[in-house]
Amino acid sequence: MSIKTNKMASMPVRQLVLSMAFPAMISMSIQAMYNIVDSIYVSRISEEALTAVSLAFPLQLLIVALMAGTGAGVTSLISRRLGEKNHQAASYAASHGLMINAVYSVSMMILGLFFARRLVSLFTSDLYLIDLTTQYISIIMIFSFGRLMSQAGMSILQGTGDMIRPMKAMLIGAISNIILDPILIFGWFGLPALGIRGAAIATILGQMLSFSYIIIVLSRGKPEVHLIVKGFKPDKGILKDIYIVGLPGIIMQSLASVMISVFNIILISFTPTAVAVLGIYFKLQSIIIMPMFGLAQGYMPIMGFNYGAKNKARMIQALKTTLMLGVAFMTLGTIILVGFPVPLLRLFDASEEMITLGVPALRRVAMGLPIAAAGITFSVTFQAIGKGYVSLIASFIRQMIVILPVAYLLSRIVGLSGVWFSFFIAEIVAIVIIGPWLIKELRRTFKLWQEQEAHQLMSHGEQTVKEVIQES
């Protein structure tokens, strides 16, 4: 076993969580910063351009759904197999992860080439907004292979406990994107001003650079896993193991896309500015919630490895440490959003109407962030132990059964100002469901392990007695 793998079994848990989560949190923070800077530059084009990017967000979430869900499945499977000391199985899981994302890339290219405008037309009938949004999202979808394939490589590395090189890959993509944004949007250094297309091109170029770095890293190999190329054949069993965790994750992220799309439809019935406000909230929220996802990324392989190794004490300690850090971080984020909504909105060249709508919106939606931290931690725990379907159930209830119906009812009873409370209500409902479920699942698992250990001890004792009798 290599040092990278051994540390998940031997390093003090609090130190381990911090050492693995910190690089992911840094890279996610940079990624979130890119999202904010990107929208700030787009807002300087026009408010319509900012609204167009907000309308495109649900379609971008489809790409995120595929890469994040499958990535969770690959990371979970690799870490569990390494915990079982089965390096060959971990290598096959890594190879399947790359193959799956290659298929996704082709699918997204087809959607971007032939169906982008039709998809955008589902969200608005405004022809100008349709044109702007299509210009942006078609480029993102056609060239999504950079993002999908780089995420596949990062998931492989994270599954082995390597969080540093995935961080570097994300930094390369995000920083290059931030640099390229104003150059391509506004036409600096003699280049043509490409407007909203420039923002999309800057994004895909950054993703391609990130992918290039990942290719270099993977080509050098890792001692824990190796990519199988010669004689590789898809294995139904491995695909099943990946999608047991990955498919619920994909569906969860896809539900987010559907939820935001329908939420935008509710908001646009009041004013397009409300759609822009929601888009700004998600950008600002990303600087808080993306590091939380980074914390979860560092936590998942620790939990998966020690689940595979049947180490109850380290599992519980990792869960408590991650939960404490997550809630504390998200509480700080809530304080910032609630305390300084106007300066934050001004970053996006907000009009007076946007500020009037945005201040109560930011404050009301942000109240649910600390609760969401616990929900994310519990959800990732289920994914780490190979039971992602529980996370899917909780996510479905939160987004489809609570947020949208509550938002619609509040829009009719209270008006636009009441719609924003639906997020807070949904977070409470989700945690009430997934929290007790996780406690019950862990207790059942630990009891099973205890019974298995007792049975093994009895069997070993009986074997020892037989050996003594035979010798005498």
Strand count, sense and barrel status of the largest sheet are: none
Mean pLDDT comes to: 85
* Euclidean distance between termini CA atoms: 40 Å
The fraction of residues assigned to DSSP E strands is under 5%
Q: How many DSSP helices?
A: 18
Number of strands: 0
Rg, rounded, reads 23 Å
The helix fraction, in percent, is over 70%
For the record, the count of structural domains works out to 1
Following the backbone from N to C, one meets helices and strands in this order, namely HHHHHHHHHHHHHHHHHH
Structural class: mainly alpha
Care to describe what's here?
With 472 residues, the chain is mainly α. The chain has one domain (3-467). It contains 18 helices and no strands. It has helices at 3-10, 13-43, 47-83, 87-114, 116-121, 127-142, 145-159, 164-186, 196-219, 236-268, 272-308, 312-339, 341-346, 352-366, 369-384, 388-413, 416-419, 421-471. Helix 10 (236-268) runs parallel beside helix 16 (388-413). The radius of gyration is 23 Å and the shape is globular. The relative contact order is 0.13.
